[in-house]
Amino acid sequence: MQTQVILEKQDLTYLSWTKTRASSGTAGTFMKSYFDLGGQKNYYKLSNYNSFRGITGHECVNELIVDRLLSFLGVEHLHYQLIHADILIDDRPYETYLCASSDFKRQGETKIALDAYYQAERLERESPLEFCVRSGWPSYIRQMLAVDYLILNRDRHGANIEVLRNARLKSFRLAPLFDHGLSLLCRCETEDEVRSFDVMADRKVQCFVGSQSARDNLNLIPKNKFPIFHPLREADRGVLFADLNPVLPQAWQDKIWEMLWRRWQFYEDFRRQG
Known about the structure:
By secondary structure, this protein is of the alpha+beta class. It has 8 helices and 12 strands.
């Protein structure tokens, strides 16, 4: 089984980093890289970066926490490693934690962002949600909307959902859920901000198939169609934050658990009432 957290510092200075635009309202950029070893691509991602402050935030840690959460819930998703590493950006050295993942495409598959696929294939006046239902993906979308409520994912834009196509087999599928860095406490930079953070507040989000409200997006799930996950348990807390003490301060861990536990309880009550 792959080690999820590598605390021993690795030399990844050979990686070349490229900038990706940060989401609206987020200062800085998110740097990405990949390395091809024997035909197997590994992808790497940093937390928020700018040339003045360096690498800040906990987006990479969020990826691992959500990875573990989705494993508890029984949701198909992309798996991440959290790696302590030395890297170079524009020949400047940084010591940081980054996350790594493997390519989720199967042999013969190519990928296209859902928003681009929707624009090419949609019917007149068909919404993204209606398009996904017609394409045979209603269960995936309902599960995604529920997960994004639990973690308060602010960044489910149309390129953070990917369509995988196999031209020979004429098959289409949606990629496992991925890219959850801008969730949880991603906007909190100080302990005071963490302590004052209202974990149940309905904050503005990006959602290609829904609205700007993660809570309202639960109303897009038809009655009696709510995903039934493996239950989150209080005993899961220890596994969720295992090996993260050197990386994530206790105040963040406590608040993230409060957030997930209370949102899980709300979701279960909402689902049963629906």
